[in-house]
Write a structure and sequence with these properties.
Elements lengths: L19 H16 L4 H8 L3 H9 L6 H11 L16 H7 L7 H11 L4 H36 L1
Helix pairs in contact: 1-3, 1-5, 2-3
């Protein structure tokens, strides 16, 4: 008796949604390529592909085979395991859409990453990293408090 392994959360052909793991791996490819300032065309040429194929890989639209992932890791100079870093053990379709695996990088973000990577002294890099995290947390806390403060001001005025 043959049973189907598809579940109600199946992905793949005919399902209309890429697998969350494919999205995550593609986002890691995009992130690594962007940080290294490598264009999709340059990466595609190194792999004997078109830039459209790289786009599809990066979106998770097309699944990357094991051998192709190896080729990409060699072209980008990272271990294959890099593409699976930060991948949660249990990843659902809803979670991948909520977390946006890797954000798009602006030119400013890329420049910041490049400058950061040029800091040789590990202790200085760590302090810059810690400062950035603190500033981001302060901003996030301020944004959370703003609606409360606005409501309080309205209540007093009304």
């Amino acid at each position: 008796m043959k049973t189907s392994m598809k579940t109600e959360n199946s992905y793949g052909y005919g399902e209309g949604q890429p697998n969350p793991v494919d999205i995550h791996v593609g986002a890691r490819v995009r992130f690594c390529r962007t940080v290294q300032r490598i264009s999709q065309t340059t990466l595609a040429n190194a792999l004997g592909l078109t830039f459209q194929q790289i786009q599809k890989y990066e979106r998770g639209t097309n699944r990357i085979s094991a051998s192709r992932l190896w080729d990409i890791s060699q072209a980008l100079g990272v271990p294959v395991t890099y593409f699976f870093d930060d991948l949660p053990d249990a990843l659902s379709r809803d979670e991948i859409h909520q977390q946006e695996a890797v954000p798009e990088l602006s030119r400013e973000s890329v420049a910041l990453l490049i400058a950061y990577s040029k800091i040789d002294k590990k202790s200085v890099r760590r302090r810059v990293f810690d400062l950035t995290r603190v500033l981001a947390d302060i901003q996030q806390d301020t944004e959370k408090e703003t609606p409360k403060a606005h409501k309080e001001t309205k209540r007093r005025a009304g």
